[in-house]
Amino acid sequence: MIVSIDHLVLTVKDINKTVDFYCNILGMKYEEFKLSKDFNTRKCIKFGKQKINLHEYDNLIIPGAKLPRPGTADICFISEIDILEWKNIFIKNSINIEYGPTDQVGADGKLRSIYVRDPDENLIEIANKVN
Q1: Which are the catalytic amino acids?
Q2: Residue 41 pLDDT > 90, yes or no?
Q3: In terms of Cα–Cα distance, which of 127, 125, 124, 98 is closest to 112?
């Protein structure tokens, strides 16, 4: 039985812009790692017990998705920071708010969400759990 997600992969145009958004705006941590079977340095961003591996569109890693493209992801992140504070963070950093704040339903119940786009135009939902 599947119990959790360990990581997912985002295909990106520019790793530096992606890292800037996810680390400096969303507060994630950047890491590099190597697999014992090759000499390539791989890149990821981490938060909680999860990570997002970053694959550059013009330098894809094998094995990988069949049709990898920047801008095709739709991801929801759960945050302890209040949605109205996120709204202020996005406004302060000139990040367009696509939608919200609004009520949604997540995997574990009700959410209060706000939507923005990352540098590759992936739809990013930031949500608070609602009791």
Answers
A1: 125
A2: no
A3: 127
